[in-house]
Design a protein that fits this description.
Elements: H1 2-9, H2 11-33, H3 35-41, E1 48-52, E2 55-58, H4 59-70, H5 80-107, H6 113-121, H7 127-130, H8 144-156, H9 159-162, H10 165-197, H11 202-213, E3 216-224, H12 237-246, E4 256-265, H13 270-289, H14 294-297, H15 320-323, E5 337-338, E6 342-356, E7 358-364, E8 371-377, H16 378-388, H17 394-400, E9 406-411, E10 414-423, E11 426-438, H18 443-459, H19 463-473, E12 477-484, H20 497-503, E13 516-518, E14 523-533, H21 540-563, H22 570-577, E15 581-587, H23 601-608, E16 619-620, E17 624-633, H24 642-668, E18 671-673
Antiparallel strand pairs: 1-2, 1-18, 3-15, 3-17, 4-12, 4-14, 5-6, 6-11, 7-8, 7-10, 9-10, 13-14, 16-17
Helix pairs in contact: 2-3, 4-5, 5-10, 11-24, 12-21, 16-17
């Protein structure tokens, strides 16, 4: 009753609390459904991959751009690393486009349709067009007519044609090319403006010239830091903190995670080897006798039979002597072989014939001048075919066409005709069917490994217990520091992006809820989250070793300075420190290295500030402690040539200044990067 009375007494307050909670619930659901409400209440659209200078990249646009770019490459080339590069390329293009666009709008810079036409079809096409084999004719010149016809085909295609796969591929290819060309040329226009503004004047050139002309000789004594015992100096916590605060801006970072992980290799068991052997033995008779060997080979073998012509060098090594032995004949078979991982056997399908090792080709141009390519062996034929984007039958056609014969291969937007001018001496070949199977872990074996990893997680569900138990069990625990939300993988293990996602959602000290199957199920990985770092700057603890060494070296320089107090000659310095006097012929402000001591900019600057025969104070360098005595000035007598010096200085600095400007623009731009939520 007392409880009910208290509720009645606070009824109004409870109504307000419940009402606010319900309103929050309703608004939360509404915000997830309505872009207008999200905008009204300042909530972020969950489908936005990124925002640059107020321009949004939606997931639909991001995904479509990725697929368009991927469609331009064969699926066989699309590895995990390739897909990472594609995603980066799409994001980087979006970044550059909008950063340059925002600057272009401020200065009234634009790219007209006339300029785009000139870039593609003008007398001097842009390098992106001129260097792409798909846009070149048989003479290596830009095929303006072909490009114009190609664009017209895309613009005038009927509805049925637009639905075809080839049309979509061509359309994606052109849209990607046009988009990249537009962004690249806008960037080049902006760069040209910057280069016009960032000019080198005569005073700049004269200053650089004088720095090179004026120098001094010097003698010096150096004591390396490592020769001074750490016990001779004292570095306090406040010294390290002071150094950290002085350099803090150098330690900016994005949020990171530190994890530890264990990798369970998926390897076949003894039972798996026995099972695979039994399968191969079961196919052995059919393999030896089948009229159509592809029926048994192609569905079951790791090496399909496609009628290829093997040489003694290109056939798998274990079958070289068998296939090319004296007396080898069609129908011969090997016994079942085993190399520790793979069971295999081979059957000769054709032997005793030869194919040329190389051919001399020329391109045939109807109504034009033929182009001789020269001699190409099989490796060079492959390289030539890839470079010119020729059809897959090109190599076989080239090697199997007789002297004087002609053949045609697809090429970019059209076709190329070739003539075989000559063929080399033929070498022995053989057609061999190979039934080969590498032993893989069975589903039962994989399940056993997975269950062991799951049991380990269940029994050790915090990072401390995880690490200790792993060591006791003899597992290798691998640390991974500085994971970012955009890290593609853990260590060098493919398919571990999901672990990165988990690390950025879990709490510090957590262990993953279940094992992760990685690299096409070749590994099982479990992980513990050791550290969550959301700080804008790297924490002092992560840098303690580096800062402690730097602070210790500073203290050692002060220690040496006390030892040398009152010393007036370099000979005395040498005696006290037990280090030899060294000599450097000439030091200028343009130098980066000081004598034999390496990169020592502070020592160079201090040396050039000395009068002749003046002894320096103790200088704390990068590698050790220095005392320098300046010698005579050594100047050259070159004539100052203003235009030459300006050109040299511009070549050294303009590109660097432009890159710095672009980086500054990126740093100053309003960028919201949500890519980690979508990959």
């Amino acid at each position: 009753m007392a409880s009910l009375q208290r509720i009645r007494n606070h009824g109004t307050l409870l109504i307000i609390i419940v009402g606010v909670a319900m309103l929050a619930f309703i608004l939360g659901d509404a915000l997830s459904q309505s872009s207008a409400l999200r905008q009204l209440f300042g909530a972020e659209d969950p489908t936005t991959v990124g925002v640059v200078e107020g321009n949004k990249l939606s997931y639909a646009e991001y995904d479509a751009s990725i697929k368009e770019l991927e469609s331009l490459y064969p699926s066989s080339a699309q590895s995990e690393d390739f897909q990472t590069q594609v995603r980066y390329a799409v994001w980087n293009l979006f970044l550059q486009e909008n950063i340059i666009r925002s600057q272009a709008e401020k200065i009234g810079m634009d790219l007209t349709s006339e300029e785009m036409t000139e870039l593609c079809l003008g007398e001097k096409p842009h390098q992106m067009i001129a260097s792409n084999p798909a846009f070149l004719d048989e003479n290596g010149e830009v095929n303006r007519t072909g490009i114009a016809q190609f664009i017209n085909m895309l613009n005038e295609a009927d509805e049925e044609t637009q639905q075809s796969e080839s049309f979509q591929l061509n359309r994606n290819f052109w849209l990607d090319t046009e988009h990249r060309l537009r962004v690249t040329y806008m960037r080049e226009k902006y760069e040209a403006i910057l280069q016009h503004l960032l000019k080198v004047n005569t005073l700049d050139a004269e200053f650089a010239f004088n720095n090179r002309q004026h120098g001094v000789s010097a003698e010096y004594v150096m004591q390396p830091y490592y020769t001074i015992a750490d016990s001779l100096v004292k570095v306090s916590e406040s010294d390290i903190k002071k150094l950290y605060n002085e350099k803090k801006e150098l330690f900016k970072q994005t949020p990171t995670r530190a994890i530890e992980y264990i990798v369970f290799n998926i390897t076949p068991s003894a039972e798996d080897f026995e099972a695979e052997k039994a399968k191969m033995e079961g196919w052995q008779e059919e393999f030896r006798t089948a009229e159509d060997v592809t029926i048994v080979v192609n569905p079951n073998s790791d090496i399909v039979y496609d009628g290829r012509d093997y040489t003694k060098e290109t056939i798998p090594a274990q079958f070289a002597e068998f296939a090319f032995a004296k007396g080898a004949k069609e129908g011969d078979c090997t016994d079942l072989l085993f190399d520790g991982q793979t069971y295999s056997m081979a059957r000769i399908m054709k032997v005793g014939y030869s194919v040329p090792d190389s051919v001399e080709l020329k391109v045939i141009v109807e109504g034009g001048e033929d182009t001789e390519i020269g001699w190409l062996d099989e490796a060079r034929l492959k390289a030539f075919a890839a470079q010119q984007q020729l059809g897959k039958d090109f190599i076989n056609q080239a090697l199997n066409t007789k002297r004087g014969g002609r053949f045609t291969a697809t090429h970019g937007l059209g076709e190329l005709s070739f003539e075989v001018m000559d063929v080399s001496k033929a070498s022995p070949r053989a057609k061999v069917a190979i039934l080969s199977r590498a032993v893989d872990a069975s589903d039962r074996t994989r399940a056993g490994i997975y269950n062991n990893a799951s049991a380990f997680i269940a029994e050790h569900n915090n990072a401390e217990a995880f690490e200790q138990a792993a060591q006791e069990a003899g597992y290798t625990v691998t640390p991974q520091y500085n994971l970012t939300a955009l890290s593609e993988k853990v260590g060098n293990i493919k398919g571990t992006r999901e672990i990165v996602r988990w690390a950025f959602k879990a709490k510090e000290g957590a262990v993953c809820n279940e094992p992760y199957r990685c690299d096409n199920d070749q590994y099982i990985v479990i992980a513990a989250l050791k550290e969550v770092n959301e700080s804008e700057y790297r924490p002092l603890e992560d840098l303690r070793g580096q800062l402690s060494l730097e602070a210790t070296n500073k203290a050692k320089a002060q220690y040496v300075a006390k030892q040398l107090k009152g010393v007036s000659s370099l000979e005395e310095v040498s005696t006290i420190l037990g280090q030899p006097i060294q000599h450097t012929e000439r030091v200028t402000l343009n130098d980066s290295r000081f004598g034999n001591a390496g990169m020592e900019p502070a020592v160079i600057g201090a040396t050039l500030a000395l009068d002749e025969n003046q002894l320096s104070e103790v200088i704390g360098g990068k590698a050790g402690v220095f005392v320098v005595k300046a010698g005579a000035a050594i100047n050259t007598n070159e004539d100052f040539q203003p235009e030459y010096e300006k050109l040299q200085l511009a070549n050294r600095t303009i590109g660097w200044q432009y890159q710095q400007t672009l980086q500054l623009l990126e740093d100053e731009s309003e960028i919201k990067d949500n890519r980690a939520n979508f990959q």
